[in-house]
Specification:
Layout: E1 3-6, E2 9-12, H1 16-28, E3 39-44, H2 46-54, H3 56-64, E4 67-70, H4 73-83, H5 92-106, E5 109-114, H6 119-130, E6 135-140, H7 149-159, E7 163-167, H8 172-180, E8 188-191, H9 195-199, H10 208-212, H11 216-223, H12 225-262
Parallel strand pairs: 3-4, 3-8, 5-6, 5-7, 7-8
Antiparallel strand pairs: 1-2
Length: about 260
């Protein structure tokens, strides 16, 4: 698939329909990618890109994933301004309904490993009410409180779901996925962040008008100021400064090449 490299991370130029088509193709592809070699999917937003700038291991893990998409307008804007590339904002809460409908239709088997104790269980209850044919074969919490890590890995190996959805927050979930990749008996392992906090009703989504204006970050900071103020109040200006610096470097390099060609 076509990608755009943003601060060392290749991001897929893909929309929601394309994302779900890729997922379906990977589930049904021939046995060359059967476990223990799952396909890996995750996302980046402004916060992720800031973390990746500071954490080389996280940046390297993201670069090794099979598909990384934009989950936030900051990444979409930066790719457009720096590279004239059109990314699509693919927030989990916006694609999860379409994902569940497709999973019902095609019989995809799903395991949810996400959130604080009880979140994944509540999310499963809600999803089954909305999508009765959705085959959620198992759940576990991202803190390994009810089942320890080894129990979860053994359960996944026994159940062999098609898709493992991992919501532990960044960069923990990506590093966990990469570390366990060779032993995960799944076809796709997908880092989804706080998706199931929304699905379970733990964290409310911003009103649609705020999402349309790109102000979802402001809502999230208002809902959880103690946990989110640093991420947004400091992280957004720092990200903008890094983008501006990269643009200046691009313009400077372009002017230098033009001067060399005229000499």
């Amino acid at each position: 698939m076509n990608t755009c490299e943003l601060f060392g991370i290749p991001l897929a130029l893909i929309d929601r329909e394309g994302l779900l088509e890729v997922v379906g193709d990977w589930i049904t592809e021939p046995g060359s990618r059967l476990p223990p070699a799952p396909r890996l999917i995750s996302y980046v937003n402004t916060h992720c890109l800031n973390l990746a700038h500071q954490d080389e291991a996280y940046r390297g893990v993201l670069a090794s994933f099979d598909l990384v998409y934009a989950d936030g307008l900051g990444a979409v804007w930066a790719a457009q301004w720096l590279h004239r590339a059109r990314l699509h904002k693919l927030t989990g809460a916006d694609w999860v309904g379409a994902f569940c409908r497709r999973a019902e239709q095609h019989g995809w088997r799903v395991y949810i490993l996400a959130g604080a104790p009880g979140v994944a269980q509540q999310a499963r209850i809600r999803l089954r009410r909305a999508y009765p044919a959705l085959d959620i074969v198992g759940v576990g919490d991202g803190f390994f409180a009810h089942k320890d890590e080894e129990e979860v890995l053994q359960e996944i190996a026994r159940l062999r779901p098609d898709i493992l959805l991992v919501g532990m927050g960044v960069p923990k979930q990506e590093k966990w996925i990469a570390y366990h990749r060779d032993g995960l008996a799944v076809k796709i392992c997908w880092g989804v962040g706080a998706l199931f906090d929304y699905v379970a009703g733990i964290e409310p989504r911003a009103p649609r008008w705020m999402r349309n204006l790109g102000l979802e970050w402001l809502w999230r900071m208002g809902v959880d100021p103690g946990g989110k103020w640093k991420r947004y109040a400091l992280g957004i200006p720092w990200f903008l400064a890094r983008v501006w610096r990269r643009k200046y470097e691009q313009l400077s390099a372009s002017l230098f090449r033009e001067q060399k060609t005229t000499e």
